[in-house]
Amino acid sequence: MPHRNLSSRDLVGYNVMRRGLGEDWALVGSSNDATYSDNDVTDYTYYYYQVSAVYDEGESDPTAEVMGVPGAITNLEPDLVETFETVSTGETLPSGWSTINDGVQEVDWIVGDDGSIGSYSIPDHSDYAYIDGSAYSSGQNVRSALVSSFYDFSDAEGAILTFDSYGQDYANYTTMDVAYRQGYGEWVVLKDMGHDHSAWESIELFVGEEIVGILQLWLGN
User: Fold this and answer.
1) Which CATH fold topology does 98-220 show?
2) What are the residues whose beta carbons fall under 8 Å from the beta carbon of 61, sequence distance 6 or more?
3) 165-176 pLDDT tens trace
4) Which residues contact 24 (CB under 8 A, 6 or more apart)?
5) Does domain 8-68 bear CATH number 2.20.28.160?
6) Can you say how many angstroms the Cα of residue 122 is from the centroid of all Cα atoms in its chain?
7) pTM for this predicted structure
C-alpha cells in the first residue's frame, strides 16, 4: 500500500490574521519564523489574532484566536464614584469609561436623563449611562458592555460596589450582568441583573472576596 510521509513537507512560513471588534478576519502579514510584530495598531483597541502555517503543499487551519490590546495601562486607586454628570446628555461616556461590542449589533452606552429611551419610559433620575436597544427587532441580538478604567485592588482590605439600576425586559430575552475581570482575562459575573424593574433600584454588592488583592481590575455591566 502506498504510504505518504507527511512529516517531510516543507514549511514556507506563517500567515497572521487579525480582526477588530465586530470585524471580519483579514491578513495583516506573514512571517518566516514564529514571531511577528503588528505595528499598525491603535492604543486601547481590541485586536484578535489567528495564525496559520503555510507549507509547500498548502495552508493549515488557523489556530484558536488570541486577544491583545496595545497601550500602557494606568491603574487607579479604587475610590470610584461616577454620577455620569460630567458630560452632556446624549453624548459619550466620561473619561476612563468605554463600550465594548463584539460579534453582534453594536450599540454604544451614552449618557441621558430625559426619561425616555425609544418607546420606553424611564423613571426620573439624575444623569445615567444607558444602552438603547429599542430600534432592534426580537430577531436581532444587541449586546454591549459598559466598563470602567483599570483599578488597583492589590492593597485593599474590602470592597463594596453600589449603583442604581433600571432595566426593562423584552419577552424574556434581556440579560444584564455585573462582572469583573483581571487584566484582559475572562469576565466573572458578580450578579445577574436580568429582570424587570418597576423603578430605579439601589444595588449594593459586597465584592471583597472576589476582587481584593487583584491588580488591573475592570468592572463591567
Assistant:
1) Jelly Rolls (2.60.120)
2) 52
3) 877 665 565 677
4) none
5) no
6) 26
7) 0.61
